[in-house]
Amino acid sequence: MNTILVPVDNGDASKNAVIYAGKLAADLGKNIQLINAYQLPISYTEVPLVTLSLEQIEKASEELLENYKKEISEVAGSELEINTESVYGEIENEIKKTIVKIEPYLIIIGTGGRSGLGKLFMGSTSLKIIKDTKIPVMIIPPTVKYVRYQKVGLTTDFEHVTEHTSTKVINEIVAKLKASLTVIHVDYERYHFTASTPMETMNLDNMLTDLKPTYSYIENKDTIEGIINYVTQNDIDLLVVYPKKHSWFEQIFEKSKTRQLIQAAIKPILCLRN
Higher model confidence: residue 136 or residue 193? Predict the structure, then answer.
């Protein structure tokens, strides 16, 4: 549980996520595990194409990982432990196998690219990985460069807080980086306010008491729009969410309009599961 897992390819989104992960790992005192999954290319044309052999593809994969390892060491320091794994297979399956094998502290995925993993993880595959594992998943938009977190935003709907809110990782990140924490709740004319809301608010505050969070209550009919506007206007460095079934987070991946908003976002999103 001391390793940050980073699935990689040779796309720009992946390159950016690798550097981001390296700098974050150095600040948190974690190790890095890079994984690249490769396959034989498939030709759909009747004209024979010159293709690489499996051995050549494997060698290219290993060279890619070695180059990333060097780049991380250059920006994060040579004392950072960086392990690499080149595997033959489907990236989704290999990620799941690696999760079981090393039980990572965090998974970092570069998303928003037009090809490779960036494209893959913009859609249902990314959401499926988040759903299928309790390991925290951090999504890095392609334009985001790492800065040591000063402001962290935590979204909540104040529903079943104790059952759905895990605070171990957020407590460690905020405490180690000495960041401030703001709990963000979006509502409109108290539509989501219930008899249990005051108690749920108290439960969350007790769970985060050591971090001394502040609370921001946003009035907006559109939850996603309210959160994104707040994050942008208040220079939040990291947005933390707790995906639930049929939640606004799922809408980000399932609706083209909100997917485009995230693709253009300038902040990372950390998805935590209880």
Answer: 136
How many domains is the chain built from?
Answer: 2
Residue type, 129: I
Is the pLDDT at 40 greater than 90? The verdict is no
- Looking at per-residue pLDDT, the higher value among 46 and 172 belongs to 172
Angle at 163 (CA atoms; ends 160, 168), nearest 5 degrees: 120
Residue 266, domain CATH: 3.40.50.620
Domain boundary, last residue among 89, 110, 140: 140
Neighbour-count burial for 61-100, b at 16+ CB within 10 Å, e otherwise: beebbeebbeebeeebeeebebebbbbeeebbebbeebbe
The neighbouring-strand residues paired with 238 are 152
> Residues 6 or more apart from 127 whose CB is under 8 A from it?
250, 253, 254
Query: pTM of the prediction?
Result: 0.84
Q: Are residues 129 and 194 in the same domain?
A: no
Q: What is the mean pLDDT of residues 109-133?
A: 59
Q: Are residues 115 and 163 in the same domain?
A: no
